[in-house]
């Protein structure tokens, strides 16, 4: 496969893995309160004293938020996943793939940002 053909399954696999990970956790909105990240049932995680910023960050990126964000990314991906992949779509797919530049299967030639 060419670079342009390889990037599509790479992105799709990363989105699928992110969604699987998010859905494996407690659903619903999370919040940070009293040193713990909480869902409707109670504590999901506790943070060390003085690490409130970590707790707020974790709560902000709860599984429901991750799944919503992936739905947006997938919609953009579907619009730009054309055949053949033109230059504009190629650039945008490379931007999408760049989010996963730390992944072992990411190719340096795909890098657009960071």
Helices, strands, pairings?
Blueprint: H1 3-23, E1 31-33, E2 36-39, E3 42-46, H2 52-60, H3 63-80, H4 87-98
Antiparallel strand pairs: 1-2, 2-3
Helix pairs in contact: 1-3, 1-4
Query: Biggest sheet, open or closed, and with what strands and sense?
Result: 3 strands, antiparallel
Secondary structure: number of strands = 3
Rounded to the nearest angstrom, the radius of gyration is 17 Å
Q: Residue-averaged pLDDT, rounded?
A: 90
Global morphology? elongated
| Unreliable stretches | none
Provide a compact summary of the structure:
The protein has 114 residues and is mainly alpha-helical.
Task: Describe the structure in your own words.
This protein has 114 residues and is mainly alpha-helical. The longest helix is centred in the first third of the chain and has 21 residues, at 3-23. It has four helices and three strands, in the order αβββααα. It has helices spanning 3-23, 52-60, 63-80, 87-98, and strands at residues 31-33, 36-39, 42-46. The chain is 53% helix and 11% strand. Helix 1 runs antiparallel to helix 3 and helix 1 runs parallel beside helix 4. It has a three-stranded antiparallel sheet. It has one domain (3-110). It holds the Pfam family DUF6221.
For this entry, give a set of tags.
about 110 residues, mainly alpha, three-stranded antiparallel sheet, 4 helices, 3 strands
């Amino acid at each position: 496969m060419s670079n342009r053909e390889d990037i599509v399954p790479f992105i799709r696999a990363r989105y699928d893995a992110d969604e699987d990970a998010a859905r494996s956790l407690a659903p619903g909105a999370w919040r940070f309160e009293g040193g713990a990240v909480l869902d409707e049932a109670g504590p999901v995680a506790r943070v060390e004293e003085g690490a409130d910023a970590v707790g707020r960050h974790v709560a902000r990126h709860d599984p429901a938020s991750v799944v919503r964000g992936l739905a947006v990314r997938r919609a953009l991906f579907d619009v730009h996943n054309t055949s053949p992949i033109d230059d504009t779509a190629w650039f945008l797919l490379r931007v999408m793939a760049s989010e996963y530049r730390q992944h072992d299967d990411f190719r340096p030639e795909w890098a657009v940002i960071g």
